[in-house]
Amino acid sequence: MHWCRSFIYIVSLLSLLGCTTATLVQPYDERLLTGSEQFYRNAATIIEHSRSQSPVERPTVEDSNHPGHIANMDNLYAELLIDTNILLLRALANSELVDETGQRLQSKITGYIDNALPSNCDNSADDVRAEFSSLTVKNFVDLKCLVVTWQAQHEAAPGKVLTQADWSRRHLSLIRFIVAVQQAEVAKLRQTSH
User: Fold this and answer.
1) Fewer CB atoms near the end CB (10 Å): N or C, the chain?
2) CA torsion, points 118, 115, 27, 183, in degrees to nearest 10?
3) Torsion angle of the four alpha carbons 119, 125, 127, 129, in this order, in degrees rounded to the nearest 10
4) CB 44 within 8 A of CB 114
5) Whole-angstrom distance, CA of residue 126 vs CA of residue 128
């Protein structure tokens, strides 16, 4: 999510500076905007269904027959990961449009952000994120990391079952993330209309 906020700041700053001769950020992509809305719809539906299947209190023993057990939700996580991959592939499709100046600028900003804010990714995923110079791509890598983190947390939960409160917290973090992604894309749209 921190990539998204930073991206908005970059686009706003570049707008104020009047930088139009270089391609410093990926152009607005309506499919990323509508894709993130669709991802939210699918993920929120899964979260609400899962919340309704989950207990209020943490279970004390593992019961793989419980509808909220990780074994009964693997297909839902797989669905979310496929959806994040679709968005990531779309973001990658336009990443080469950022010119060398933009890549250098984004690299410096990335270093600053990485030092100031933690990522959703573990160390191995951070290595993957480092391969991309595009902040837009990194936003969607972070979205995938969020889903991977959720799955790992579910696997590690007592009884391998999350509570209703766990799912509610996930919904709030999903909303924050999608709003930030959408703000970044809308900021790019505003930049192109000036």
Assistant:
1) C
2) 50
3) -60
4) no
5) 5
CA distance 37 to 43: 10
For residue 184, the model assigns a pLDDT of 84
Contacts 24+ apart (CB under 8 A), 42-50: 42/79, 42/80, 42/83, 43/80, 43/83, 43/174, 44/171, 44/174, 46/76, 46/79, 46/80, 47/167, 47/170, 47/171, 47/174, 48/167, 48/171, 50/76, 50/162, 50/167
Kindly report the CA angle at 34 between 32 and 38, in degrees rounded to 5?
110
Q: CB 68: neighbour CB atoms within 10 A?
A: 24
Cα–Cα dist 87/33, whole Å: 10
Domain boundaries, given as residue ranges, for the chain:
25-56+63-192
**Burial (Cβ within 10 Å: 0-12, 13-18, ≥19) of residue 156:** exposed
Structural tokens at position 117: 């804010």
Tell me the two tokens of residue 134.
């595009």
* Alpha carbon separation from 74 to 50, 69, 70 (Å, rounded): 12, 9, 6
Give the predicted TM-score (pTM) of the model: 0.74
Query: Are the C-beta atoms of 28 and 91 separated by less than 8 Å?
Result: no
